[in-house]
Amino acid sequence: MSDLSAFPITTRWPAQQPDRLQLYSLPTPNGVKVSIMLEELGLPYEPHMIDIGRNETWTPEFLALNPNGKIPAIIDPDGPGEQPIALFESGAILLYLAEKTGRFLPADPVLRYETIQWVFFQMAAVGPMFGQVGFFHKFAGRDYEDKRPLERYVAESKRLLGVLETRLAGRTWIMGEAYTIADISLLGWVRNLIGFYDAGDLVDFASLVQVPAWLERGLARPAVQRGLSIPLRP
Ligand SMILES: N[C@@H](CCC(=O)N[C@@H](CS)C(=O)NCC(=O)O)C(=O)O
Question: Which residue lies with its CA nearest to atom 2 of ligand 1?
């Protein structure tokens, strides 16, 4: 039986099954990357719902796991050297899980770095830019009189969607025939932009061909569907 008592987060969110990977998350575009990956892998894990609306990521127990105060984060009791490992940042977690299992990341070095490149593209560009569209279009920033920030983030998001549109031409997935962590990192963000953020018209999503078809293919995957609502919101 694994002992996770050295991790303060387990005092607030106790592990019922400490031998399983512990997921601390919420079904947001960053959170679902990890739940989708875990569902795709079929790894046993125990999800813990972290309520960001109640600032639970800013509690001392959560901050001890992620000093940056954000979901998702994990503890894998079966980490390298058979020691537990704690990780935050969804991109790092995707890479860790891909390397641990040898799945969803090509073994060929060139293809592997190409995949990682697209994961970084999501982490550095798509996530931050789409998130700002959400803030200025759907959340508090909606009431700001000055519309220039919204316009700037919409323009950049449209440009990024154009990059994806070009990349996906003639490809089923970002890496061609292989479904990888690049797709897993991006699907939730594109879905959220046109769904929850209601920004489809703003970014002229209807003018795209490849991205909507890719999104539909991704959303048709049962593991993606399951991962999109894990951990269950109350
Ligand atoms: N770069 C981080 C971003 C994580 C992030 O922004 N998480 C948001 C939810 S999508 C969060 O926890 N927000 C809580 C807060 O800022 O209070 C990652 O990809 O893991």
Answer: 89
Is residue 209 packed enough to be buried (19+ CB in 10 Å), middle (13-18) or exposed (0-12)?
exposed
Q: Is the CB of 70 under 6 A from ligand 1?
A: yes
Query: Which amino acid is located at 6 in the chain?
Result: A
Which residues of the chain fall short of a pLDDT of 70? none
Distance 73 CA to ligand 1 centre (A): 10
Q: Give the distance from CA 90 to its chain's centroid.
A: 6
The whole-angstrom separation of Cα 163 and Cα 153 is 15
The partner residues of 70 in beta bridges, in order of sequence, read none
Minimal-distance CA residue to ligand 1 atom 16 = 70
Q: How far is the CA of 171 from the centre of ligand 1 (A)?
A: 30
pLDDT in tens, 61-101: 999 999 999 999 999 999 999 999 999 999 999 999 999 99
Which domains occur in the chain, in start order? 9-103 (3.40.30.10), 109-221 (1.20.1050.10)
Res 192: pLDDT: 98
DSSP assignment string, 192-209: HHHTTT--TTTTTGGG-S
Ligand 1 mean position to 90 CA, how many Å?
Answer: 9
CA of 188 to the centre of ligand 1 (A): 13
27 token code pair? 């079904």
What is the reported pTM? 0.98
Residue 200, classified by CB atoms within 10 Å of its CB into exposed (0-12), middle (13-18) or buried (19+), is middle
